[in-house]
């Protein structure tokens, strides 16, 4: 029998974010965050992510004035805040070794600029990581995952304001000092490049708060400040806790030319350079020349201090973490071409690929290509910290969810990952399915776009019992992990999937 091999310490896991699962949005001293201002909008196409997540000052006032959770889905999440013990127990039974989640900044420093942390928030996360340790599960901790305290938007200029670097550093050091005995792997900022696509949910930037300014300049300055903050956290861990590892994290979308027209190949190359620009800064410790040239051509001027450049060199990431869901094509002239989307990235439809219900094209080979490209570029350990399929799942009358489409997606992507480890020489630390239980979608703020291995009885309007039901994909993943570091190749062919479906 032929096998795929992984190291015995390979981190098979699952992933989520506080703002999408926790709930308890105003409990135990937690402050209001930017995620609490994002509402479910049934009157807008759920694929129109830009319209859904474009927030102005009036929308923020509306959010502040409404204390309910009815329309504000991320305020109630799926009640992980009160249900974390049961959720972790169920997920531990799959055999996972890693659980990636995030800290809600506003649960630790409710206003962001507080002098002292909220002890109840610290103790909550201590209890979570202790629960994970009970099952020998490694926490993968993200410090900032779309949950900035709202006060830093209202009374500062969000990440555009240099003072936010200091406030974030205080928050991060507080959490690291409190949890370092339990958490080895840290990610300062989730998908740091996402600020380009959704500046509010990523960094609290509201365009109408910057009148008479070039908003693109504001975005890039805020991103620079995030780079500095992230480098400070890397350096702090290296100087004080030598056993900790700190990675950067990017959104990885594979980009292909629409066809072999050299102009389209050039367009794809330029787009991929944009994808790499932000991991280059964190992995190599300096701004790539092509990005500096691009900013100059756009007349974007950043306030970069001399000590910032030194910090970036000192605070390079120990590993490259990334999300991967899909791929897109691109063309120099898109007129008349079908448009598709991949994790909020707009591209041209690839006729060789299927697509999800939300229009994301399914490309397992793109994951292998991403692993090769990233490893060849950086020669640093990689970590797939998000990969999964958003779909409408149906709960049967006997409490089952037959999500064959998700099993197929995971099967094909994990197979390409294992081939890449075996044949391409990739140094890969682990793989985390997005998500854990079902959760509120980051892109559409709805519940019906489900990712989890465990179904949560909750609809888009917040109605439901919150009861949990294991999906077929849960049992599929459990079966996969039961093989340990030697996984039969036959497990990934279509026949094996069909047999597994029958046995569930």
UniProtKB/TrEMBL annotation:
The keyword Disulfide bond does not apply. SUPFAM superfamilies: (Trans)glycosidases (SSF51445). GO terms for biological process: carbohydrate catabolic process. GO terms for molecular function: beta-glucosidase activity. The keyword Transit peptide does not apply. Keywords: Glycosidase, Hydrolase. Belongs to the glycosyl hydrolase 1 family. This is Glycoside hydrolase family 1 protein. It comes from Companilactobacillus suantsaicola.
């Amino acid at each position: 029998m032929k096998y795929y091999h992984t190291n015995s310490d390979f981190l098979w896991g699952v992933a989520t974010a506080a703002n999408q699962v926790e709930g308890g949005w105003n409990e135990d001293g937690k402050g209001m965050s930017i995620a609490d201002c994002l509402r479910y909008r049934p009157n807008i196409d759920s694929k129109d992510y830009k319209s859904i997540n474009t927030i102005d000052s009036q929308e923020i006032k509306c959010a502040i004035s409404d204390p309910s959770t009815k329309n504000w889905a991320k305020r109630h999440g799926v009640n992980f805040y009160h249900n974390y013990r049961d959720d972790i127990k169920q997920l531990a039974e799959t055999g996972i070794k890693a659980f990636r989640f995030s800290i809600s900044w506003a649960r630790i420093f409710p206003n962001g600029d507080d002098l002292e942390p909220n002890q109840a928030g610290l103790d909550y996360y201590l209890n979570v990581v202790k629960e994970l340790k009970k099952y020998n599960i490694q926490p993968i901790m993200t410090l900032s995952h779309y949950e900035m305290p709202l006060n830093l938007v209202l009374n500062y200029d969000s990440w555009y304001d240099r003072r936010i670097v200091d406030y974030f550093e205080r928050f991060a050091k507080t959490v690291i000092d409190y949890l370092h005995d339990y958490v080895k792997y840290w990610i300062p900022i989730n998908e740091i490049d996402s600020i380009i696509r959704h500046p509010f949910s990523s960094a609290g930037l509201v365009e109408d708060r910057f009148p008479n300014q070039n908003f693109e300049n504001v975005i890039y300055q805020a991103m620079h400040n995030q780079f500095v903050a992230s480098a400070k956290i890397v350096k702090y861990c290296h100087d004080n806790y030598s056993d900790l590892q700190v990675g950067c994290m990017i959104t990885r979308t594979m980009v292909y030319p629409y066809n072999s027209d050299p102009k389209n190949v050039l367009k794809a190359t330029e787009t991929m350079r944009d994808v790499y620009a932000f991991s280059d800064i964190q992995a190599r410790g300096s701004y790539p020349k092509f990005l500096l040239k691009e900013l100059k051509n756009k007349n974007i001027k950043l306030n970069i201090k001399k000590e910032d450049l030194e910090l970036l060199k000192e605070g390079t990431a120990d590993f490259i973490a990334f999300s991967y869901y899909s791929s897109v094509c691109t063309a120099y002239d898109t007129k008349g071409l079908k448009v598709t989307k991949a994790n909020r990235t707009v591209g041209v439809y690839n006729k060789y690929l299927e697509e999800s219900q939300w229009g994301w094209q399914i490309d397992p080979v793109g994951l292998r290509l991403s692993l090769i490209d990233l490893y060849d570029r950086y020669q640093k350990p990689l970590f797939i910290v998000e990969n999964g399929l958003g779909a409408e799942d149906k709960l049967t009358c006997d409490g089952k969810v037959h999500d064959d489409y998700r099993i197929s997606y995971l099967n094909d992507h994990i197979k390409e990952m294992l081939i890449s480890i075996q044949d391409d020489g990739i140094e890969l630390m682990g793989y985390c399915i997005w998500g854990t239980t079902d959760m509120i979608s980051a892109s559409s703020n709805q519940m019906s776009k489900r990712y989890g291995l465990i179904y949560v009885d909750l609809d888009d309007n917040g109605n439901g019992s919150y009861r949990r039901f294991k999906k077929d994909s849960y049992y599929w993943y459990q079966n996969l992990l039961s093989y340990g570091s030697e996984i039969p190749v036959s497990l990934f062919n279509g026949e094996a999937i069909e047999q597994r479906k029958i046995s569930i």
